TrEMBL record:
Family affiliation: Belongs to the cullin family.
GO MF annotation list: ubiquitin protein ligase binding
Matches recorded under InterPro entries: Cullin, Cullin_N, Cullin_repeat-like_dom_sf
Protein name per Swiss-Prot or TrEMBL: Cullin N-terminal domain-containing protein
High-level lineage: Eukaryota, Viridiplantae, Streptophyta, Embryophyta, Tracheophyta
Cullin N-terminal domain location: 69-305
GO BP annotations, alphabetical order: ubiquitin-dependent protein catabolic process
Species this protein is from: Manihot esculenta (Cassava)
Family annotation (Pfam families): Cullin
Length: 328
């Protein structure tokens, strides 16, 4: 007799084989999951960008004259972490570029909206004073942003040969937007202060020193050699001043008085220059003074000495010997 249970088992197996699998009716969810993850990642990145915009807004307050509103340790850690999370993981190059460009546009906006308007209507010492203030505030703002975006300088930027460091961007931005337009006014104002003191007027020496240090700091970066240009113009102005002074003294003073005044000019010029000029510039300046007061008028000095029958030759030789060590 045929086993009925055997047939029942075969029939059940055949029925199951013909029934569509339940998994065939479910859609493939892998693409949906991927899209959901990407959407969540973009949302998180947008939140981080909003937080960095908050950091930028607060940093720009420094340019508006509120440097006392510094960042707390908690704020620094928060902003630094957001910048890191935006740029530190694989596939985040677009975010790194966004931070890089946002850093640059922030600097440009600050210069165009705050720095240039504050400088354009000023001149002389007031112009230089405002320049130093604006550069100080601008540098402080840039340093804070560089701290927040440190990861770019350490990892992202070195991998690209085309990108400048954040520090170079900040200096070049100020140089390109401010110095290219107003440098001639800065130079004229600084030389005016030197001439004023040379004529016996009181000036702010510390201001002049800070301006020249600023010229040298800007000069370290690629582009126009601003300090060298200032130095060349300053030496030309000095040569003109002492050439005219020598002509006046040769006409009005005796040989003895002339040599005494030359000695006084050397001492005063050296004292002034030592306060705000670097050593190399001091030597060049003294050489210009020596040339205009001693070397150039030598024939006229000898002529005057002959007319007076004085001991000018000896005095002249002593003066040359005294200042010979200051030549380049």
């Amino acid at each position: 007799m045929i086993n009925q249970s055997f047939f029942k088992s075969i029939l059940k197996a055949e029925t199951l084989s013909r029934r569509p699998s339940q998994f065939m009716w479910l859609p493939d969810t892998s693409e949906e999951v991927k899209n959901m993850v990407e959407a969540e990642s973009r949302a998180q990145d947008n939140i981080r960008k909003m937080i960095l915009e908050e950091a930028i807004r607060k940093a720009k307050k420094i340019m508006e004259g509120h440097p006392e509103k510094m960042f707390t340790i908690e704020e620094y850690q928060r902003f630094h972490q957001c910048a890191y999370e935006l740029s530190a993981f694989p596939g985040s190059d677009d975010n790194s570029i966004w931070i890089y460009r946002r850093f640059k546009t922030t600097l440009e906006e600050s210069v165009l909206s705050i720095v240039l308007p504050s400088l354009k209507d000023k001149s002389d010492a007031a112009l230089l004073r405002e320049l130093i203030l604006m550069w100080s505030n601008y540098s402080l703002m840039a340093r804070w942003l560089c701290r927040f975006f440190e990861y770019l300088d350490r990892y992202f930027i070195p991998e690209s040969m085309e990108l400048c460091s954040l520090r170079d961007i900040s200096v070049n931005c100020f140089k390109d937007l401010v110095f290219r337009e107003l440098y001639s006014k800065f130079r004229a104002a600084a030389i005016s202060l030197i001439n004023q003191e040379r004529m016996g007027l009181h000036i702010d020496r510390d201001l002049l020193k800070n301006v020249l240090l600023f010229f040298m700091e800007i000069n370290k970066h690629k582009g126009v050699s601003y300090y060298e240009d200032f130095e060349r113009t300053m030496l030309e102005e000095t040569a003109t001043y002492y050439s005219q002074l020598a002509q006046q003294m040769l006409v009005c003073d005796s040989s003895e008085d002339y040599m005494q005044k030359v000695d006084q000019c050397f001492n005063e010029e050296k004292a002034r220059a030592s306060y705000y000029l670097p050593c190399n510039s001091q030597l060049k300046l003294i050489e210009v003074v020596r040339c205009q007061l001693l070397s150039q008028p030598v024939d006229k000095l000898i002529e005057n000495r002959t007319a007076e029958n004085s001991g000018l030759v000896t005095d002249y030789q002593e003066m040359l010997s005294k200042y010979a060590g200051m030549t380049l």
